Amino acid sequence: MIEVIVTTLKEARQAERYGADRLELIADMKAGGTTPSFGTIRNVIEQTGIPVHVMIRPHADSFVYNEDDEETLLADVGLCRELGAAGIVFGALRADGKIDERLLGEVIKHKGDMALTFHRAIDEVTDMVAAIEVLNEFPEVDHVLTSGGAATAREGIKSLKAMLESAEMNILPGAGIDADNVRELLETLDVSFVHVGSGVRTDGALDESKFRQMHERMKR
């Protein structure tokens, strides 16, 4: 199954038509993703038929958030809940490079029944396996999106395997996944879901042929 990054209603419709199983809706893909606008969130949820997980990230400066950031992101969590998002994608760190457990707890209080993915902020922690053990204490965390701390999931495959051994939630490999390496990742990690962005795009636009190649490789 494939979770696909999208940034607009047009892309969301295309991704669904091309065979995406779930959408990660973001703004500012070049910066790694920030929270999309109210209108984009509402329209994508209302006009697509697959689960929509919305990025909750008030800015791309870092994953360490101050009080103003917290007020903004908690309001966005509430907005996504009211609009009927299937899930949110969130991650926060402390200045010492560890999981911000307090803020994660606040997000959990506000999210209602939405699924929660802890995103690639985890790739910047000081100890990835220790971070997974911290997240294991939060059963409300359904997925962890990670490249294993490397530039790509394929480069981080050793770390991803170590994380999988410790994780009580689903590990969602992401970064640099395409039709050429998806089969290797699925078989080596024994996962059923992958997260793709540029791997199904050509010159920044979603490419139906790359979706088709990805599905063909995954079915082998």
Q: Nearest-angstrom radius of gyration?
A: 16 Å
**Envelope shape:** globular
SS summary, helix count: 8
Tell me the span between the first and last alpha carbons.
Answer: 13 Å
Q: Taking all residues together, what is the mean pLDDT?
A: 95
CATH class label: Alpha Beta
CATH architecture: Alpha-Beta Barrel
Low-confidence stretches: none
The biggest beta sheet is recorded as:
8 strands, parallel
Spatial strand arrangement across the major sheet: 7-6-5-4-3-2-1-8
List the helices and strands in order: EHEHEHEHEHEHEHEEEH
| Approximate strand percentage | 15-25%
Which bin fits the share of residues in helices?
Answer: 25-40%
* CATH homologous superfamily title: Copper homeostasis (CutC) domain
Quick one: how many beta strands? 10
CATH topology group:
TIM Barrel
Class by alpha and beta content: alpha/beta
Number of domains: 1
Task: Provide a descriptive summary of the structure in words.
With 220 residues, the protein is α/β, with parallel strands linked by helices. The protein has one domain: TIM Barrel (Alpha-Beta Barrel). It contains 8 helices and 10 strands. It has helices at 9-18, 38-47, 67-83, 101-110, 128-135, 157-166, 182-189, 208-219, and strands at 2-6, 22-25, 52-55, 87-90, 115-118, 143-146, 170-173, 194-196, 201-202, 205-206. The strands form 2 sheets. Strands 7-6-5-4-3-2-1-8 form an 8-stranded parallel β-sheet. Strands 9-10 form a two-stranded antiparallel sheet. Strand 2 (22-25), helix 2 and strand 3 (52-55) form a beta-alpha-beta unit. Helix 3 (67-83) packs parallel to helix 4 and helix 5 (128-135) packs parallel to helix 6 (157-166). The two termini are 13 Å apart.
